[in-house]
Amino acid sequence: MTTPSSRRPLALTMGDPAGIGPELMLRAWLARASLEAPFFALADPKALGALARRLGLEAPIAEVAPAEASAAFVSALPVVALRARADARPGEPDPAFAAATIESIERAVGYVRSG
């Protein structure tokens, strides 16, 4: 049987940083015992940490490179930091964060294509 830490991680895009995606990332990591494979988030690590605290969730964040994600997944939500700004306030969408959403998707596709 494989364990999550022995499998290649999935790349999880955040969607709109002001939407439900960042919270779903946190809650998915909290449910990691029931998952078949680890994942890493493409997001803003500081914003995810702040959201976890705001929601009262015990979800430590580890800023990682994709190759480090599986090892980190056991004890923290692995996050590959975006270059574009993604520190939106939940429920307050802003076109200024569109670049982060696009970067998240493009980088995830790039990681999949590169194996």
Number of separate helices: 4
Question: What are the secondary-structure elements, in order, as H or E?
Answer: EHEHEHEH
| Gap from first CA to last CA | 22 Å
Structural class: alpha/beta
pLDDT averaged over residues: 93
Say how many strands there are. 4
Which residue ranges are poorly predicted, with pLDDT under 50 across at least 5 consecutive positions?
Answer: none
Largest pleated sheet:
4 strands, parallel
Instruction: Identify the strand order in the major beta sheet.
Output: 1-2-4-3
Globally, the shape reads globular
> Measured on Cα atoms, how large is the radius of gyration?
13 Å
Q: How much helix, percentage-wise, in residues?
A: 25-40%
Number of domains: 1
Beta-strand percent range: 5-15%
Oligomer: single chain
Provide structural commentary.
- There is one protein chain.
- The chain is α/β, with parallel strands linked by helices.
- It has one domain (4-110).
- The chain has four helices and four strands.
- A four-stranded parallel beta sheet has the order 1-2-4-3, sandwiched between helices.
- Helix 1 (21-30) links the parallel strand 1 (10-13) and strand 2.
- The longest helix has 16 residues, at 98-113.
- It starts with 9 loop residues before the first strand and ends with a helix.
- The mean pLDDT is 93.
Secondary structure topology:
Blueprint: E1 10-13, H1 21-30, E2 39-43, H2 45-55, E3 61-63, H3 69-73, E4 77-81, H4 98-113
Parallel strand pairs: 1-2, 2-4, 3-4
